[in-house]
Amino acid sequence: MKEIRVGIIGLGRMGRIHARNIAENVPSATLYAACHYNEEELERARKDLGVKETFKNYEDMISSPNIDAVVIVSPSSLHTKHIRLAMEKGLHVFCEKPIGLDVEDIKQTIEVINAHPNQAFQLGFMRRYDESYQYAKKMVDEGAIGELTLIRCYGIDPGSELESFVKFAADGKSGGLFADLSIHDIDLVRWISGMEVKHVWAIGKNAAYPVLDDLGELETGAAMMQLEDKTMALLVSGRNAAHGYHVETELIGTKGMLRVAQEPEKNLVTVFNEQGVTRPTFQTFPERFREAFLREMREFILCIKAGREPEVTAYDGLQSTIVAEACQKSIDTEQLINLN
Protein backbone atom coordinates (compact mmCIF):
# COMPACT_ATOMS: atom_id res chain seq x y z
CA MET A 1 0.00 0.00 0.00
CA LYS A 2 1.03 3.61 -0.48
CA GLU A 3 2.87 5.65 2.10
CA ILE A 4 0.57 7.56 4.45
CA ARG A 5 1.15 11.31 4.16
CA VAL A 6 0.53 13.05 7.47
CA GLY A 7 -0.13 16.68 8.40
CA ILE A 8 0.35 17.88 11.97
CA ILE A 9 -1.09 20.87 13.79
CA GLY A 10 0.88 22.09 16.78
CA LEU A 11 4.67 22.10 17.07
CA GLY A 12 5.06 22.69 20.78
CA ARG A 13 6.84 20.18 23.02
CA MET A 14 4.31 17.40 22.45
CA GLY A 15 3.88 18.22 18.79
CA ARG A 16 7.62 18.07 18.17
CA ILE A 17 7.73 14.57 19.66
CA HIS A 18 5.05 13.29 17.30
CA ALA A 19 6.48 15.20 14.35
CA ARG A 20 9.95 13.70 14.72
CA ASN A 21 8.58 10.21 15.28
CA ILE A 22 6.49 10.40 12.09
CA ALA A 23 9.33 11.91 10.08
CA GLU A 24 12.03 9.50 11.23
CA ASN A 25 10.70 6.42 13.03
CA VAL A 26 7.29 5.36 11.69
CA PRO A 27 7.43 2.98 8.71
CA SER A 28 5.06 3.69 5.81
CA ALA A 29 4.46 7.26 6.98
CA THR A 30 5.87 10.61 5.96
CA LEU A 31 5.41 13.98 7.65
CA TYR A 32 4.22 15.90 4.62
CA ALA A 33 2.63 19.02 6.14
CA ALA A 34 2.70 21.09 9.33
CA CYS A 35 0.58 23.88 10.76
CA HIS A 36 1.70 26.28 13.49
CA TYR A 37 1.32 29.96 14.32
CA ASN A 38 5.08 30.49 14.64
CA GLU A 39 7.07 30.86 11.41
CA GLU A 40 10.31 29.83 13.14
CA GLU A 41 8.81 26.46 14.07
CA LEU A 42 7.56 25.98 10.52
CA GLU A 43 11.00 26.76 9.14
CA ARG A 44 12.52 24.26 11.56
CA ALA A 45 10.02 21.64 10.36
CA ARG A 46 10.97 22.29 6.74
CA LYS A 47 14.70 22.24 7.43
CA ASP A 48 15.05 19.50 10.06
CA LEU A 49 12.14 17.18 9.22
CA GLY A 50 11.78 17.64 5.48
CA VAL A 51 8.19 18.88 5.66
CA LYS A 52 6.96 19.77 2.16
CA GLU A 53 3.99 22.02 2.99
CA THR A 54 3.60 24.44 5.91
CA PHE A 55 0.58 26.47 6.97
CA LYS A 56 -0.51 28.96 9.60
CA ASN A 57 -4.19 28.15 9.04
CA TYR A 58 -5.50 24.69 9.96
CA GLU A 59 -8.31 24.64 7.42
CA ASP A 60 -5.83 25.42 4.67
CA MET A 61 -3.70 22.45 5.69
CA ILE A 62 -6.53 19.93 5.82
CA SER A 63 -7.70 21.17 2.42
CA SER A 64 -4.43 20.08 0.87
CA PRO A 65 -4.95 17.19 -1.57
CA ASN A 66 -1.54 15.83 -0.57
CA ILE A 67 -2.30 14.51 2.94
CA ASP A 68 -4.14 11.38 4.07
CA ALA A 69 -4.16 11.89 7.82
CA VAL A 70 -3.81 14.58 10.45
CA VAL A 71 -2.21 14.55 13.91
CA ILE A 72 -3.85 17.08 16.23
CA VAL A 73 -1.65 18.58 18.95
CA SER A 74 -3.42 21.93 19.19
CA PRO A 75 -4.72 23.43 22.49
CA SER A 76 -7.21 21.13 24.22
CA SER A 77 -10.08 23.58 23.74
CA LEU A 78 -9.72 23.24 19.95
CA HIS A 79 -9.50 19.45 19.70
CA THR A 80 -13.16 18.73 18.97
CA LYS A 81 -13.40 21.43 16.31
CA HIS A 82 -10.22 20.22 14.62
CA ILE A 83 -11.38 16.60 14.74
CA ARG A 84 -14.71 17.41 13.09
CA LEU A 85 -13.13 19.52 10.35
CA ALA A 86 -10.59 16.81 9.51
CA MET A 87 -13.18 14.03 9.50
CA GLU A 88 -15.39 16.01 7.17
CA LYS A 89 -12.41 16.40 4.81
CA GLY A 90 -12.06 12.62 4.63
CA LEU A 91 -8.87 12.42 6.70
CA HIS A 92 -7.77 9.85 9.26
CA VAL A 93 -7.28 11.50 12.67
CA PHE A 94 -4.94 11.05 15.59
CA CYS A 95 -5.70 13.47 18.45
CA GLU A 96 -3.75 14.08 21.62
CA LYS A 97 -5.60 13.83 24.91
CA PRO A 98 -8.03 15.07 26.02
CA ILE A 99 -10.51 14.64 23.21
CA GLY A 100 -12.20 17.81 24.49
CA LEU A 101 -13.19 19.79 27.56
CA ASP A 102 -16.99 19.84 27.22
CA VAL A 103 -18.99 16.62 27.40
CA GLU A 104 -21.81 17.68 25.06
CA ASP A 105 -19.29 18.97 22.52
CA ILE A 106 -17.46 15.63 22.67
CA LYS A 107 -20.71 13.72 22.10
CA GLN A 108 -21.40 15.79 18.99
CA THR A 109 -17.86 15.11 17.80
CA ILE A 110 -18.32 11.36 18.30
CA GLU A 111 -21.39 11.52 16.05
CA VAL A 112 -19.19 13.00 13.32
CA ILE A 113 -16.51 10.33 13.88
CA ASN A 114 -19.11 7.55 13.75
CA ALA A 115 -20.46 8.98 10.50
CA HIS A 116 -17.09 8.24 8.88
CA PRO A 117 -16.46 4.56 9.71
CA ASN A 118 -13.83 4.14 7.00
CA GLN A 119 -11.56 6.75 8.58
CA ALA A 120 -9.36 5.79 11.53
CA PHE A 121 -9.64 7.81 14.72
CA GLN A 122 -7.20 7.31 17.58
CA LEU A 123 -6.80 9.18 20.86
CA GLY A 124 -3.38 9.73 22.44
CA PHE A 125 -3.53 7.70 25.63
CA MET A 126 0.06 6.55 25.19
CA ARG A 127 0.37 4.69 28.50
CA ARG A 128 -1.62 1.84 26.94
CA TYR A 129 1.38 1.35 24.63
CA ASP A 130 3.96 1.25 27.43
CA GLU A 131 5.41 -2.25 27.78
CA SER A 132 5.27 -2.21 31.59
CA TYR A 133 1.60 -1.26 31.67
CA GLN A 134 0.79 -3.81 28.98
CA TYR A 135 2.56 -6.49 31.02
CA ALA A 136 0.65 -5.51 34.18
CA LYS A 137 -2.71 -5.54 32.37
CA LYS A 138 -1.97 -8.97 30.93
CA MET A 139 -1.32 -10.30 34.44
CA VAL A 140 -4.58 -8.78 35.69
CA ASP A 141 -6.53 -10.22 32.74
CA GLU A 142 -5.02 -13.65 33.36
CA GLY A 143 -6.04 -13.56 37.03
CA ALA A 144 -2.48 -13.54 38.34
CA ILE A 145 -3.39 -11.26 41.27
CA GLY A 146 -6.95 -12.49 41.68
CA GLU A 147 -9.87 -10.08 41.69
CA LEU A 148 -8.93 -6.40 41.62
CA THR A 149 -9.85 -4.54 44.78
CA LEU A 150 -7.87 -1.28 44.56
CA ILE A 151 -5.96 0.75 41.97
CA ARG A 152 -3.65 3.54 43.12
CA CYS A 153 -2.18 6.03 40.65
CA TYR A 154 0.39 8.79 41.10
CA GLY A 155 0.90 11.25 38.23
CA ILE A 156 3.08 14.19 39.26
CA ASP A 157 4.91 16.58 36.94
CA PRO A 158 8.39 17.89 37.90
CA GLY A 159 8.47 20.88 40.22
CA SER A 160 10.97 22.53 37.91
CA GLU A 161 8.08 23.25 35.51
CA LEU A 162 5.63 24.58 38.09
CA GLU A 163 6.58 28.23 37.79
CA SER A 164 6.10 28.18 34.01
CA PHE A 165 2.72 26.49 34.52
CA VAL A 166 1.62 29.30 36.84
CA LYS A 167 2.44 31.80 34.09
CA PHE A 168 0.55 29.65 31.58
CA ALA A 169 -2.47 29.42 33.89
CA ALA A 170 -2.51 33.20 34.25
CA ASP A 171 -2.88 33.51 30.46
CA GLY A 172 -5.65 30.96 30.06
CA LYS A 173 -7.24 27.86 31.55
CA SER A 174 -5.43 24.56 31.04
CA GLY A 175 -8.63 22.57 31.38
CA GLY A 176 -7.89 21.81 35.02
CA LEU A 177 -5.62 19.39 36.85
CA PHE A 178 -7.86 16.36 36.35
CA ALA A 179 -8.56 16.94 32.64
CA ASP A 180 -4.97 17.98 31.97
CA LEU A 181 -2.99 15.44 34.01
CA SER A 182 -5.20 12.86 35.74
CA ILE A 183 -6.93 11.98 32.48
CA HIS A 184 -4.14 9.46 31.79
CA ASP A 185 -4.66 7.77 35.16
CA ILE A 186 -8.43 7.81 34.70
CA ASP A 187 -7.96 6.01 31.39
CA LEU A 188 -5.62 3.48 33.03
CA VAL A 189 -8.24 2.74 35.70
CA ARG A 190 -10.91 2.09 33.04
CA TRP A 191 -8.56 0.14 30.76
CA ILE A 192 -7.04 -2.14 33.39
CA SER A 193 -10.25 -2.79 35.31
CA GLY A 194 -12.63 -2.92 32.35
CA MET A 195 -15.08 -0.99 34.51
CA GLU A 196 -16.63 2.47 34.50
CA VAL A 197 -16.42 4.92 37.41
CA LYS A 198 -19.58 5.21 39.51
CA HIS A 199 -18.72 7.65 42.36
CA VAL A 200 -16.06 10.35 42.72
CA TRP A 201 -14.84 12.44 45.65
CA ALA A 202 -11.94 14.83 45.07
CA ILE A 203 -9.92 17.31 47.13
CA GLY A 204 -6.96 19.58 46.44
CA LYS A 205 -4.47 22.10 47.80
CA ASN A 206 -2.26 24.88 46.47
CA ALA A 207 0.79 25.17 48.71
CA ALA A 208 3.80 26.34 46.69
CA TYR A 209 1.75 28.82 44.63
CA PRO A 210 -1.44 29.89 46.47
CA VAL A 211 -2.10 32.29 43.57
CA LEU A 212 -3.46 29.27 41.73
CA ASP A 213 -6.53 29.53 43.98
CA ASP A 214 -7.46 32.78 42.25
CA LEU A 215 -6.76 31.26 38.82
CA GLY A 216 -9.08 28.31 39.40
CA GLU A 217 -6.21 25.83 39.03
CA LEU A 218 -4.78 23.13 41.27
CA GLU A 219 -1.19 22.36 42.15
CA THR A 220 -1.98 19.05 43.84
CA GLY A 221 -5.21 17.07 43.82
CA ALA A 222 -6.47 13.68 44.91
CA ALA A 223 -9.56 11.68 44.06
CA MET A 224 -11.21 8.58 45.49
CA MET A 225 -13.36 6.61 43.08
CA GLN A 226 -15.68 3.64 43.26
CA LEU A 227 -16.11 1.57 40.10
CA GLU A 228 -19.18 -0.35 38.94
CA ASP A 229 -18.09 -3.55 40.72
CA LYS A 230 -17.07 -1.63 43.90
CA THR A 231 -13.36 -1.76 43.03
CA MET A 232 -11.68 1.31 44.53
CA ALA A 233 -9.34 3.71 42.76
CA LEU A 234 -7.14 6.40 44.32
CA LEU A 235 -5.59 9.10 42.15
CA VAL A 236 -2.94 11.60 43.19
CA SER A 237 -2.09 14.24 40.62
CA GLY A 238 0.26 17.16 40.95
CA ARG A 239 2.76 19.55 39.44
CA ASN A 240 5.48 19.64 42.10
CA ALA A 241 7.64 16.49 42.21
CA ALA A 242 11.06 17.64 43.45
CA HIS A 243 12.89 14.59 42.08
CA GLY A 244 11.57 14.71 38.49
CA TYR A 245 8.65 13.18 36.60
CA HIS A 246 6.78 10.67 38.78
CA VAL A 247 4.23 8.24 37.37
CA GLU A 248 3.45 5.19 39.50
CA THR A 249 0.59 2.69 39.55
CA GLU A 250 -0.29 0.01 42.10
CA LEU A 251 -2.79 -2.78 41.48
CA ILE A 252 -4.03 -4.72 44.52
CA GLY A 253 -5.94 -7.96 44.13
CA THR A 254 -7.14 -10.86 46.25
CA LYS A 255 -4.07 -12.97 45.38
CA GLY A 256 -1.32 -10.39 45.14
CA MET A 257 -0.34 -6.93 43.99
CA LEU A 258 1.62 -5.24 41.21
CA ARG A 259 3.51 -1.97 41.18
CA VAL A 260 4.47 -0.23 37.93
CA ALA A 261 7.41 2.17 38.34
CA GLN A 262 7.35 2.27 42.14
CA GLU A 263 10.44 4.44 41.77
CA PRO A 264 10.83 6.46 38.54
CA GLU A 265 14.29 5.06 37.80
CA LYS A 266 15.78 6.27 34.53
CA ASN A 267 18.08 3.27 34.11
CA LEU A 268 19.92 0.59 36.07
CA VAL A 269 22.79 2.87 37.13
CA THR A 270 23.54 3.54 40.80
CA VAL A 271 25.67 6.62 41.45
CA PHE A 272 28.20 6.67 44.31
CA ASN A 273 29.65 10.15 44.96
CA GLU A 274 29.90 12.98 47.51
CA GLN A 275 26.09 13.16 47.64
CA GLY A 276 25.91 9.54 48.77
CA VAL A 277 24.30 6.68 46.86
CA THR A 278 21.65 7.77 44.35
CA ARG A 279 19.66 6.43 41.40
CA PRO A 280 18.96 8.69 38.38
CA THR A 281 15.25 9.32 37.77
CA PHE A 282 13.19 10.43 34.78
CA GLN A 283 12.90 14.21 34.64
CA THR A 284 10.26 14.63 31.91
CA PHE A 285 7.41 12.73 30.30
CA PRO A 286 9.20 12.53 26.90
CA GLU A 287 11.95 10.55 28.64
CA ARG A 288 9.62 8.19 30.49
CA PHE A 289 7.23 7.42 27.64
CA ARG A 290 9.52 7.81 24.61
CA GLU A 291 8.83 4.29 23.33
CA ALA A 292 5.12 4.49 24.10
CA PHE A 293 4.73 7.64 22.00
CA LEU A 294 6.49 5.90 19.13
CA ARG A 295 4.47 2.70 19.41
CA GLU A 296 1.10 4.50 19.50
CA MET A 297 1.93 6.42 16.33
CA ARG A 298 3.07 3.26 14.57
CA GLU A 299 -0.23 1.67 15.59
CA PHE A 300 -2.18 4.60 14.13
CA ILE A 301 -0.49 4.18 10.74
CA LEU A 302 -0.96 0.39 10.83
CA CYS A 303 -4.68 0.85 11.53
CA ILE A 304 -5.01 3.14 8.52
CA LYS A 305 -3.24 0.65 6.25
CA ALA A 306 -5.14 -2.36 7.60
CA GLY A 307 -8.51 -0.62 7.68
CA ARG A 308 -9.12 -1.51 11.32
CA GLU A 309 -10.26 0.54 14.30
CA PRO A 310 -7.59 1.69 16.80
CA GLU A 311 -7.87 0.33 20.32
CA VAL A 312 -8.15 3.76 21.94
CA THR A 313 -11.44 5.22 20.78
CA ALA A 314 -13.36 8.48 21.02
CA TYR A 315 -15.61 6.78 23.59
CA ASP A 316 -12.60 6.30 25.85
CA GLY A 317 -11.95 10.01 25.56
CA LEU A 318 -15.56 10.84 26.40
CA GLN A 319 -15.67 8.62 29.49
CA SER A 320 -12.34 9.92 30.80
CA THR A 321 -13.48 13.52 30.38
CA ILE A 322 -16.76 12.75 32.17
CA VAL A 323 -14.78 11.42 35.15
CA ALA A 324 -12.33 14.34 35.07
CA GLU A 325 -15.25 16.77 34.99
CA ALA A 326 -16.81 14.98 37.97
CA CYS A 327 -13.54 15.31 39.89
CA GLN A 328 -13.48 19.05 39.26
CA LYS A 329 -17.14 19.34 40.25
CA SER A 330 -16.33 17.52 43.48
CA ILE A 331 -13.53 20.01 44.15
CA ASP A 332 -15.83 22.96 43.47
CA THR A 333 -18.80 21.69 45.53
CA GLU A 334 -16.92 19.71 48.21
CA GLN A 335 -19.35 16.87 47.61
CA LEU A 336 -19.38 13.26 46.47
CA ILE A 337 -20.38 13.12 42.79
CA ASN A 338 -22.45 10.26 41.41
CA LEU A 339 -21.96 9.41 37.72
CA ASN A 340 -24.82 7.94 35.71
UniProtKB/TrEMBL annotation:
Q: GO terms for molecular function, please?
A: nucleotide binding; oxidoreductase activity
**Ranges of residues in domain Gfo/Idh/MocA-like oxidoreductase N-terminal:** 4-119
| Keywords in alphabetical order | Oxidoreductase
The organism's superkingdom is given as Bacteria
Q: In what residue span(s) does the GFO/IDH/MocA-like oxidoreductase domain sit?
A: 133-259
Write one Pfam family the protein is assigned to. Answer: GFO_IDH_MocA_C3
Q: Which GO terms describe its cellular component?
A: cytoplasm
What processes in GO biological process is this protein linked to? NADPH regeneration
| NCBIfam families per the UniProt record, alphabetical | myo_inos_iolG
Of which family is this protein a member?
Belongs to the Gfo/Idh/MocA family.
Q: What is this protein called?
A: Inositol 2-dehydrogenase
- What taxonomic lineage is listed for the species of origin? Bacteria, Bacillati, Bacillota, Bacilli, Bacillales
